[in-house]
């Protein structure tokens, strides 16, 4: 069944788009990532103009995150307090990120910068997480008790606050810093930032993996809502018809994803997410390194 | 909507226009002069047919050939070229092609070189190459960039040269079926019909086909342009409701 998208001005197969939404929804529910870093390239692949893909992807992530957060709320695995603190840092970071983005745009080559950002962050985050989680899995298998280092330098900082859901008593400075950093990346890379937020919460803040997913989704809702509004107002590139198709698949997928995520062990979950991140990173790196089959690209100024 | 279209197709009479004082004139009919883009729009086929009206007997010499072109709205296109720098492929050169139609097709009754001489092509900008205008390229090999526009759009089915697809009967009646792809942009599609003999244009005729979004597509497009804030809020409300709805449905299913 072909559907014509009014903003993207292309016709797409509705079943393919539904399936795409479902796939990304499952990942979203399982790992607490918005899935933007996978969704956007996949939308390019089926012929959606890049500007529409980025904006509409953000809108779809709102839906799957709401669905996922509600599922997590029932399990009480959302640290609302931590989410709010991260968000405060995130909003400040987003403003700085937009300024940085516009500066890079004035220099040209913003596309290259964004791709390089993706490759570097996905590579580093994915690599570190993969090594750590494989080690943790091995230890767990051999019967050793996994030791969470509770006393890193960040525990010496002032303004300590108790985060009951996460079982933490730490300074608010690290969460705000993490939120700020992710906010900058969100604005520059056009994604929710879950793939950076999740490992940051686990390794930098020492939050338990189960709570991390719900809290990350909670934070992503607000970021992607703001992003959707911004795109709708300034670029008019949000395609509601495409979004509806994606989110029907997405919300259903997110529910399944959450259930799969609950059944898996934390280390397994992290190994899977790390593998996924590394795969996307590898694909982007290859695009930069291999000679493209078409050296030329077209863009229509004014129409996305 | 489809029914309305077919009604239009039946009702539209032969359009008799073009009063130039040439010996042979085009009397043209279109199966439809409007293409409505609905939610389930998946391309469209337009039948272009007509007759040649002549006051004098059939001239001797080269047979009559017919050439039909349909061109989408002209718009500037930014073409970027990648090159390898420090081991990675990056956009290095960019050229703005000032005028390139979003859609362009040429249908002919014989191979293009037989139907139209090069001088006539130059005069009327018929072939795909001539229909694209590149002015003031900042790089040496500007032509490579307009070639790229043609190549990429030909691969996407937006530009096409379809030789021998116009049927001509008795040097008087002609018809061709024109398929338009699903990813059309809105606007007026200029349609030209040329009658040629021995490569020379003996008569030509112009009309337009209007391509526009209708119904829900029209409403959403207008809303996104005129009320962007409302549109954004609508998008968010739909997203939140869908997320909440799925969660509620799954919870209900689980409790059963």
Compact overview of the structure:
Chain A is mainly alpha-helical and 304 residues long.
Instruction: Specify the CATH architecture of the largest domain in chain B.
Output: Sandwich
Determine the fraction of residues in helical runs of chain A and give it as a percent range.
over 70%
pLDDT < 50 runs, ≥5 residues of chain A: none
Average pLDDT metric of chain B: 79
Task: Find the count of extended strands of chain A (DSSP E, 2+ residues).
Answer: 5
Instruction: Give the SSE order of chain A as H and E letters.
Output: EEHHHHHEEHHHHHE
Backbone shape of chain A:
globular
Q: Helix proportion of residues of chain B, in percent? A: 25-40%
The secondary-structure class of chain B comes to alpha+beta
Mean pLDDT of chain A: 78
- Low-confidence stretches of chain B at least 5 residues in length (pLDDT < 50)? 7-21
Radius of gyration of chain A: 19 Å
**Biggest pleated-sheet summary of chain A:** 2 strands, antiparallel
**Rg of chain B from C-alpha positions?**
24 Å
Task: Characterise this structure.
The complex is a heterodimer of chains A (304) and B (256). Chain A is mainly alpha-helical and 304 residues long. Chain A has one domain (2-287). Chain A has ten helices and five strands. In chain A, the strands form two sheets. In chain A, strands 1-2 form a two-stranded antiparallel sheet. In chain A, helix 1 packs across helix 3 (50-74). Chain A is globular. The relative contact order of chain A is 0.23. Chain B has 256 residues and is α+β, with helices and mostly antiparallel strands. Chain B has two domains: 2-209, Immunoglobulin-like (Sandwich), CATH 2.60.40.3880; 220-255. Chain B is built from seven helices and twelve strands. A six-stranded mixed beta sheet of chain B has the order 2-12-11-4-7-8. In chain B, a hairpin with a 2-residue loop joins strand 5 (74-85) and strand 6. Chain B starts with a helix and ends with a helix. Residues 7-21 of chain B have low confidence and may be disordered. Chains A and B meet through strand 1, helix 3, helix 8, helix 9 and helix 10 of A and strand 5, strand 6, helix 5, helix 6 and helix 7 of B. Strand 5 of chain A pairs antiparallel with strand 5 of chain B.
């Amino acid at each position: 069944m072909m559907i014509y998208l009014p903003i993207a001005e292309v016709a797409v197969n509705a079943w393919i788009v539904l399936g795409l939404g479902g796939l990304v929804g499952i990942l979203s529910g399982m790992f607490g990532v918005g899935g933007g870093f996978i969704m956007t390239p996949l939308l390019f692949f089926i012929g959606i103009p890049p500007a529409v893909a980025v904006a509409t992807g953000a809108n779809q992530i709102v839906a799957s995150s709401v669905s996922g957060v509600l599922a997590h709320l029932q399990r009480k695995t959302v640290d609302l307090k931590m989410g709010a603190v991260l968000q405060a840092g995130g909003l400040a970071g987003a403003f700085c990120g937009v300024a940085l983005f516009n500066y890079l745009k004035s220099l040209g080559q913003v596309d290259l910068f964004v791709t390089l950002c993706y490759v570097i962050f996905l590579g580093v985050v994915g690599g570190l997480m993969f090594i750590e989680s494989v080690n943790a899995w091995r230890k767990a298998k051999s019967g050793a008790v996994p030791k969470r280092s509770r006393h890193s330098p960040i525990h010496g900082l002032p303004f300590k606050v108790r985060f009951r859901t996460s079982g933490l008593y730490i300074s608010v400075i690290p969460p705000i810093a993490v939120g700020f950093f992710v906010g900058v990346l969100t604005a520059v890379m056009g994604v929710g930032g879950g793939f950076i937020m999740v490992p940051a919460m686990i390794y930098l803040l020492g939050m338990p993996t189960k709570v991390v997913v719900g809290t990350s989704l909670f934070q992503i809702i607000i970021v992607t809502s703001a992003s959707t509004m911004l795109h709708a107002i300034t670029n008019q590139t949000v395609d509601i018809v495409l979004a509806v198709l994606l989110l029907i698949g997405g919300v259903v997928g997110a529910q399944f994803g959450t259930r799969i995520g609950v059944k898996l062990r934390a280390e397994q979950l992290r190994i899977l997410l790390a593998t996924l991140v590394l795969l996307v990173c590898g694909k982007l790196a290859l695009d930069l390194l291999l000679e493209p089959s078409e050296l030329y690209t077209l863009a229509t100024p004014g129409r996305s | 909507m489809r029914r309305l279209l077919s009604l239009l197709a039946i009702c539209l009479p032969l359009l008799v226009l073009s009063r130039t004082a040439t010996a042979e004139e085009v009397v043209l009919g279109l199966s439809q002069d409007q293409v409505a883009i609905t939610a389930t729009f998946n391309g469209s086929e337009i039948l272009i047919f007509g007759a040649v009206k002549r006051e004098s007997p059939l001239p001797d010499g080269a047979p009559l050939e017919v050439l039909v072109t349909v061109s989408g709205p002209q718009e500037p296109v930014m073409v970027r070229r990648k090159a390898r720098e420090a081991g990675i492929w990056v956009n290095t050169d960019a050229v703005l092609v000032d005028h390139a139609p979003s859609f362009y097709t040429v249908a002919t009754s014989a191979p293009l070189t037989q139907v139209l001489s090069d001088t006539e092509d130059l005069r009327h900008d018929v072939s795909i190459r001539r229909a694209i205008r590149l002015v003031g390229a900042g790089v040496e090999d500007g032509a490579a960039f307009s070639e790229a526009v043609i190549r990429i759009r030909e691969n996407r089915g937006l530009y096409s040269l379809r030789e021998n697809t116009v049927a001509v009967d008795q040097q008087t009646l002609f018809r061709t079926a024109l398929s338009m792809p699903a990813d059309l942009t809105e606007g007026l599609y200029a349609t030209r019909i040329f009658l040629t003999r021995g490569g020379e244009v003996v008569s030509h005729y112009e009309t337009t086909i209007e391509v526009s979004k209708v119904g829900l597509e029209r409403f959403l497009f207008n809303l996104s342009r005129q009320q962007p804030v409302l549109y954004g809020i609508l998008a968010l409300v739909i997203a939140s409701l869908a997320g909440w709805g799925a969660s509620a449905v799954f919870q209900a299913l689980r409790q059963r």
